[in-house]
């Protein structure tokens, strides 16, 4: 069998590691969607939304980063 070589793909810009690309993707998704922050009360809805603790929020972001790494192919 031939040895597999790792070389940058077209999806990875030159000079950037796949982890950096996954991190940028994670940050974009988290900012755009509010990923991991919990449910916020919207207009007309009242009640006590369950806010996540800092640890739960961090865990959610770590899980999102791992998913992004999988998509990027790290």
Name the poorly predicted regions.
Answer: none
H/E element string? HH
Strand content: under 5%
Distance between the termini: 22 Å
Instruction: Count the DSSP helices.
Output: 2
What is the count of β-strands? 0
Report helical residue fraction.
40-55%
Helix-and-strand structural type: mainly alpha
Mean pLDDT across every amino acid position: 76
**How large, in whole angstroms, is the Cα Rg?**
17 Å
Please give the largest β-sheet: none
> What is the 3D form?
elongated
Tell me what you see in this structure:
- The chain has 74 residues and is mainly alpha-helical.
- The chain has a domain at 18-40 and 49-72.
- It has two helices and no strands.
- The longest helix is centred in the last third of the chain and has 19 residues, at 54-72.
- The protein is elongated.
- The model has no long low-confidence stretch (mean pLDDT 76).
Structure, briefly:
The chain has 74 residues and is mostly helical. It contains two helices and no strands.
Structural features:
74 residues, mainly alpha, 47% helix, 0% strand, elongated
Draw up the topology in text.
Blueprint: H1 18-33, H2 54-72
